[in-house]
TrEMBL record:
Belongs to the TBP family. Signal peptide: none annotated. This is TATA-box-binding protein. The keyword DNA-binding applies. Pfam families: TBP. Keywords: DNA-binding, Transcription. PANTHER family: TATA-BOX BINDING PROTEIN (PTHR10126). GO terms for biological process: DNA-templated transcription initiation. The keyword Protease does not apply. GO terms for molecular function: DNA binding.
Amino acid sequence: MSLEYKIVNVVATCDLGVRINLANYARTNVASVQYNPDVFRAAITRLKDPSSTILVFHTGRLVITGAKTCDTARSQADRMKRLLKIRKAPMSFKVQNIVTTASCHKSINLVALYAQIVTHAQDKIKSVTYEVEIFSGLQIKLNQGCIIVFSSGKIIVTGFTSRSLINECYDEISSFLTQYGSSFIRASSIGI
């Protein structure tokens, strides 16, 4: 079973290497910047086309969220550099997290999936948790990253920092679904 995933969020950080006067920055960009230092120490900048949110700290550090690709996150860092009128290149840029979603388009018996993971994949994971009273998804913690599976067949993969690691993760998920899926994938697409 092959899974097609979609990137829904890229989180990246950037250090511009200069201090920023956030009060002046917020005053000159009222339409797109929210700044209240009594509530939160960063200026919140909402950019459009493409849409993303950037937290700007007085230290010159940025946290970029909402980008759909790593390249978009980097271009948003460059866009912020221009908006802040900083001429030098960013000192650092690092993707911290990529969140993806996929669907197997079938409902899944999470109790049976849990049993299959414990039986056949314990050596490949750090832990697996399914406590429906606390959270409706089955959580699989890996050395790097986390997989969340819902009874609807929706799968979320988070905690990875590169497409190649995400591709490897989805290849493993697809292989596991192909090999053991008959014991936990339901014939109908009706959820639990």
